[in-house]
Amino acid sequence: MENIREMTVNQLPAPTWNWLHMNESKLKLDTKTADLAIKKQVPSVGIQCYEDCNHLLKECSTGMGEEIQSLMEQTKTKVLHLETEEGVMVQEPVLLHFDYGKETAYHDIEIVAKANSSLTVIMTYTGIKNEARQEKSYSGVRTKLKAEEKARINLIQVQLLDSSHIHFNDIGGICQEEGQIDLLQLELGSKELYSGCRIELTGKESEFHSHVGYLGRQEQRFDMNYIVNHYGKKTKSGLKVDGVLDDRASKIFRGTIDFKQGASGSQGEEQEDVLLLGDDIVNQTIPLILCAEEDVQGNHGATIGQIDDEVLFYLCSRGMTKEEAQAMIVQARIDTLCSKIPNEQVVTMIDTFRQEA
């Protein structure tokens, strides 16, 4: 198709052996887009919302790479800019809902927490459920974040797209002195998901913490690239990933913590836990720690395997089938992330999606 553009995305900051085919990925996206409105609920106090504005966070790079920037320019994607007032703790979360249909649509979001302020933003992605429809659907969101001095951003993203979607979710963030970004992502749908996140901890004692959960079934593909660059002194980061792969699903996770020169006293940790339920799955992981500073602490670990036989035996001895026991364990993982979402309506959306899947 003449509107389809192939791009190179999710490149590792420090490439590994080419024969592994893990240094980067190729992504094909439609460049003919529709103007799809975002359903918004924005608190009336403490936050400003600017639609169709110019890019204000040009200095903010994202995890999927420069070609997403080029795509946004080519498709003339509009920017929604959210900005808190300085010193205001916004209590009510901002709700942004993206309901994708048959037409291709991309969105550009900017979120700024001014000094000594905080806010929570919940983004949900849904798509039409029509298994008879065979053609691909394209959708994507790029989100840029900036936490100024002693500010905090809590970003929650829940992806519940149907099995026809090729979706990208790209994030970039900057944390100034004592600023903090917390990221929670729950990826349950789509045919192919490409996600990236790049956070720059520029200020002293700034922090980034993420918790990503995913459930891969049938022939779903997840391609993820998360990068944290430590520049400031005594900065902290944590990457936590909990996933389940079943049927013929595949996943690649690239997690990089990079201690730059001058980031003395900094700490970074990444931990992945993958539960394997299928026989034909593909699971790839690259945990990477780079270091140009001596006085730092970096750790990474991974737990990859099937459900313990003793656990299965115990549950089955209580009257469950193997399938019921597996389903309960998977649900418990999803419930752990849902407990961190401060909105009952979003949790209900997740439960409904799981029941219909």
TrEMBL record:
GO biological process: iron-sulfur cluster assembly
Superkingdom in the source lineage: Bacteria
Domain SUF system FeS cluster assembly SufBD core: 103-332
Record-linked PANTHER family: FES CLUSTER ASSEMBLY PROTEIN SUF, UPF0051 PROTEIN ABCI8, CHLOROPLASTIC-RELATED
Family: Belongs to the iron-sulfur cluster assembly SufBD family.
Name of the molecule in the record: SufD family Fe-S cluster assembly protein
Source organism of the structure: Candidatus Scybalomonas excrementavium
